[in-house]
Amino acid sequence: DIEWSPASIERSSLTGMDCVHGFKEMPKAPYISMTLRDTNGLKVADFNAMGDANINIALANGKNVIGSKMWCVSALEVKSTDATFDVRFEGFDGSVTEQ
Q: Quick check: 88 and 36 in contact, CB under 8 A?
């Protein structure tokens, strides 16, 4: 399971007792997150050390999602029943692109 967001800003509405006053913008780190399955050849702890990772994902619909110079922000926890763990990488503005 893969999820990504190339967005670099997040907007939220500003409301008062009388009406909507507008919105505010805050910076947001673009991200790629995924659920992976632990295998013999994989060291889960190695993901925590990733601070300059390049990620390439080829989707079944032909789209490619590319992450450049990203860092792992997950506290990795493996679920023993199905040997899966969630990992999330974040980066600077423009670090996630779709082709």
A: no
Q: Which two tokens stand for residue 95?
A: 């670090």
Q: pLDDT tens digits for 33-42?
A: 999 998 888 8
As a whole number of angstroms, the distance between CA 46 and CA 97 comes to 24
Distance CA 33, CA 54 (A): 13
Which single residue is written with the structure tokens 């503005």? 93
The neighbour count for residue 35, using CB atoms within 10 Å, is: 13
Yes or no: say if 7 and 38 are a contact pair by the CB < 8 Å rule. Answer: no
Task: State the DSSP string of 33-65.
Answer: EEEEE--TT--GGGGGG-SSEEEEEE-TTS-EE
| pTM of the shown model | 0.85
Is residue 82 within 8 Å of 36, Cβ to Cβ?
no
Q: 72 — phi, psi (to 5°)?
A: -80, 130
